[in-house]
Design a protein that fits this description.
The structure holds 2 protein chains of 2 kinds. By secondary structure, chain A is an alpha/beta fold. Chain A has helices spanning about 1-15, 40-45, 60-65, 80-90, 110-115, 150-155, 180-190, 190-205, 210-215, 245-255, 265-270, 275-290, 315-320; strands at about 20-25, 35-40, 70-75, 100-105, 120-130, 130-135, 140-145, 165-170. Chain A has 13 helices and 8 strands. In chain A, a hairpin with an 8-residue loop joins strand 1 (about 20-25) and strand 2 (about 35-40). Chain B folds into 2 domains: about 5-60 and about 85-205, no CATH class; about 220-340, no CATH class. Chain B has helices spanning about 10-20, 95-110, 115-125, 170-180, 190-205, 220-225, 230-235, 240-245, 290-310, 320-325, 330-340; strands at about 5, 25-30, 35-40, 65-75, 75-80, 90-95, 125-130, 155-160, 165-170, 185, 255-260, 265-270. In chain B, the strands form 2 sheets. Chain B has an 8-stranded mixed sheet, with helices on both faces. The N and C termini of chain B lie far apart (about 45 Å). The model of chain B has no long low-confidence stretch (mean pLDDT about 95). The chains are: A alpha/beta, B alpha+beta.
Amino acid sequence: MQELMKARAAALLSEGKVNRVLGWAAGEFVYDVTPTVFESREELERDFVYSPFCGANLSKYLVKEARKEGKILVFLKPCDSFSFAQLVKEHRIPREKVYAVGVECYGKTDATALRSLGITGIVGAAEQYGALTLNTLNGERRVTVAEAMLEKCKSCKTKEHRLCDELLGEEGEPVSDCSRFEEVEKVEAMTPEERFAFFRGELSRCIRCNACRDVCPACTCETCVFDNPASGIAQKAAADPFEENLYHIIRAFHVAGRCTDCGECTRVCPQRIPLHLLNRKFIKDINEFYGPYQAGDDPETPSPLTDWKPDDVEPGSAVRKGGRA
Amino acid sequence: MSTYRIREERLPALFEETAKKRKLYLPTDTAEGVAAFLPYREGMTLTASLNTSRSAKDLFFPQTETLADFKVSGREIAVVDVREECEDFLLFGVRACDVKSFEILDRVFLAEPVDSFYKNRREHGTVVSLACASPVETCFCGTFGIDCADPEGDAAAYRWEGYYYFVPLTEKGEEYLASVESLLEETDDGPVWDAKGEIYRKKERLPLKSLTTEGFGGERTKELFDSEKWESLSEACLGCGTCTYVCPTCQCFDIRDFDTGRQIRRYRCWDSCMVSDFTKMAGGNPRPTQKERFRQRFMHKLVYFPAENEGIFGCVGCGRCLAQCPISMNIVKVMKALKEEKE
């Protein structure tokens, strides 16, 4: 797959169809890949990588990249393509500035997931059909990607792309046994006191690095309210022990109806807070109140939260349906 | 120097005894599997992780702290000094890199004008370090002349064949070991050397062992500042604060006022050169894009800090930024790219 992608990117570059290529570059070890813009065949040849460690969603970079001159090629995994489609829908990315190439994905892993399986000191790896042979400082370890999958991949909703100009590899299908709301249901089953304690416990680890916001494809405000010193809630000012909680709650509300559940927030959290739970609760509620809706599914359907229909649920029924209090 | 030891299974008793006399912080695993320095509670055990997710600097330089309160009554404003004498505490199991970071922070906070908040914690804190029996691929403390087999601190601990060995290094360390004397037995230092030898053998296999500081330092300001590499290196940077907040040596802070409704609370909180309003002032921001902010972080550690501190670099090679950056950009990649450019 990697070689196919490299060849296709190099061809499109030399044909002049695109000016730059947004992909992933190899790092020091095997897992530390970095989103990178490639401008030549030589750069692609030297650094381009597509491996089970390419979990990073590249679509948000397009907001910045599409403002530059020329056209950029981007490689999108199925989940990333939903983010891309949503950003196009929100007019954050001019569609004509991007050449989107969908690439197949069978789930991704990262060093954190491997470390939690007790695999440390990873310096290299070889992959074949989802089986990883890891070269570590303590000898060889074997593991499948499925055993060490990122949270977002464990709850993968579909292997089918949206809004791409072409596809490399096989197009997949929706995941029929996707159980991404199971964890939400567990939280819903808690009493209000338990739920409050649960979220206080999780969110109290927050160090306000804002990585969840900075990586989030739904967070593309030119200046975030949390970066505006005049807002009184600017990022560095954890003036109150509830501040971190407030930050995450406000963010979840702000991306509601636009969050595609790409799972980047949870992937990047250095404190391993399951941030996706908040977003997924909103998605589940939207599905229940307004009928099934998937952000980024297509460029036309209006989001239920920015649309109004006479038979929309009343706010009170939301409380009756979802609330146990 | 005297050496003491205790059997591994007796560690809980040692922690129990230590915690009787002062507050004890241990690197332990939280329920969610995140290694952190936490106040000791009965039954707490040491983490199996090499290092904690956040660094040990938090105990001396917390993320936020109140500096003063201002009380307004009528036309009077009273300044309330909130400083209190800190309680005695002991940090157990600090790695050589983190111990060295305290020295770097000391150079900032204990230089004139002395930061009394920091000094207070430093004076009341005792550091028991722990040699790294299994350094990992992200470790590069050796680049900065730090020896993970021979950590500094008030006392150093070594794990070897079912025992923990302790060597006091300062008066504070001697005093601590004397306070738990009943649990320790005096022994010769042979096993400590065995433990070190084993670590040296492991260090030989570390992938970053050949990384050096050659080409960096106080003399290189202009040349490195003007490097063309900053553009591409910073391109993917999200501008989040992860690297700076988990870094044991990042020491920038901001001071803000918070109106509680009844009074004004002046507090400080960590700042991060990665975020958009870093050094923003009335006249604007001298670092308007991520490129300048990103460059600041590495120039500070590799050029400005050594320029002002007798060549000492502002990085200890703990590897936290390597392990935690959301896009896997870090000081090792930066150093290698800048070196490559020169060659």
